[in-house]
Amino acid sequence: MKAVLIKNANIVNEGKIVKGDVLVQDGRIAEISETISAKSSDTKVIDADGSYLMPGMIDDQVHFREPGLTHKADIESESKAAVAGGITSFIEMPNTIPQATTIELLEDKFDIAAKTSWANYSFMFGGTNDNIDEILKVDPQKVAGIKLFLGSSTGNMLVDNPKVLEEIFSKTKLLISAHCEDEATIKQNLEKYKAEYGEDIPMELHPIIRSEEACYISSSNAIKLAKKTGARLHVFHLSTEKETHLFSNNKPLAEKQITAEVCIHHLWFTDEDYKTKGSKIKWNPAVKTQNDRDGLLKALLDDRIDVIATDHAPHTLEEKNNKYLNAPSGGPLVQHALVALLELYHKGKITLEKIVEKFAHNPAILFQIKERGYIRKGYKADLVLVDLNSPWTVKKENLLYKCQWSPFEGTIFKSRVTHTLVNGVVVYENTKFANKSNPERLTFNR
């Protein structure tokens, strides 16, 4: 494997920015110093003067749609888009077809990723009302965790039996990640607006139907159950300011039993954007008010919210262009997540150090991912270089998603990813894919 020497970079790592060089050999970070000389003539040297070197981002929640939904996306296409966006590792969700609710079906997904992924990978095991025996077979050192849909499920993955929920929370040693929205509240709201509008429910009512109350009821109940049973609970994609007060910042992340995540779209869009974006910003949980967006950012900065993710969940434009009741929720985000966060940096809303903490360091801590998430000697060389002053416009021609649309189309980003290294290989360089990646299955220090 060819050595890579990154020279003169502004290294963003562990709360600091320092100028220096990083040498990569045999897939790992071999040396970090103020100045390093190439050890051999065939070392690839990247002059990063003026650019910022970060650990590769770790996205703890994506839907890459394979197997069974590959008309929307697949592991190869979406992981390639992720790498171009500076994401070098992902954790994918179980609601594919078939759903990853047995060990055998879970391993089928690992097999696909081993052959086609461009980024390092792991998968969530899916919980149901009747697969506790399979849940207890999962090896915590080889699988990211268990995903529970406590609302908004597909197939049979809504876990709504209280006795089953308590049994899962009590018995599993896995980290439990939960989608929290109260189905009864949503159903009641939906029926009200169906009675008023029939098939023509305005898209702007999405955050009223999938309301703050629905989110808060479900999140608070999950937290109560976690406290009762001692389970390790991670609440996915908070969308309301009210929910942020359910979480604390009174201890280091590694010591927390209950943690939370926020997604890019909830930090970027508000309910005002439904007028122009329509179903393209229809997610579950819904994009809500400016007060919610501001509250989520505040909680992220003061460490009540622990990580940033994308909840990348593509659908075809044909599917998204349906009326409210038939337009699926979700959208593509991995290619533009980091540059969107860097736009918030340019606006003075977040520091580079905090972006790296929440999108690289903390996912590694939270999931106990082995040897990733930091720029440290001996760690796997998952690295991303960004130019903070290289404006570009999101257009159909530069989209890498299989679905070929983005809620960011027309947006001008000031920053761009120039290089991405996965396990020491320069995979992406100056808008081109330079080499085939050599991704690895994530392993966990548990």
UniProtKB/TrEMBL annotation:
Its cofactor is Zn(2+). Gene3D superfamilies: Metal-dependent hydrolases, Urease, subunit C, domain 1. Its EC number is 3.5.2.3. Residues 52-427 form the Amidohydrolase-related domain. It comes from the Bacteria. GO terms for molecular function: allantoinase activity; dihydroorotase activity; metal ion binding. Keywords: Hydrolase, Metal-binding. The keyword Metal-binding applies. InterPro entries: Amidohydro-rel, DHOase/Allantoinase_Hydrolase, Dihydroorotase_CS, Metal-dep_hydrolase_composite, Metal_Hydrolase. The keyword Lyase does not apply. It is an enzyme of class 3 (hydrolase). GO terms for cellular component: cytoplasm. Pfam families: Amidohydro_1. GO terms for biological process: purine nucleobase catabolic process. NCBIfam families: PRK09236.1, pyrC_multi. Catalyzes the reversible cyclization of carbamoyl aspartate to dihydroorotate. Belongs to the metallo-dependent hydrolases superfamily. DHOase family. Class I DHOase subfamily. This is Dihydroorotase. It comes from Aequorivita lipolytica.
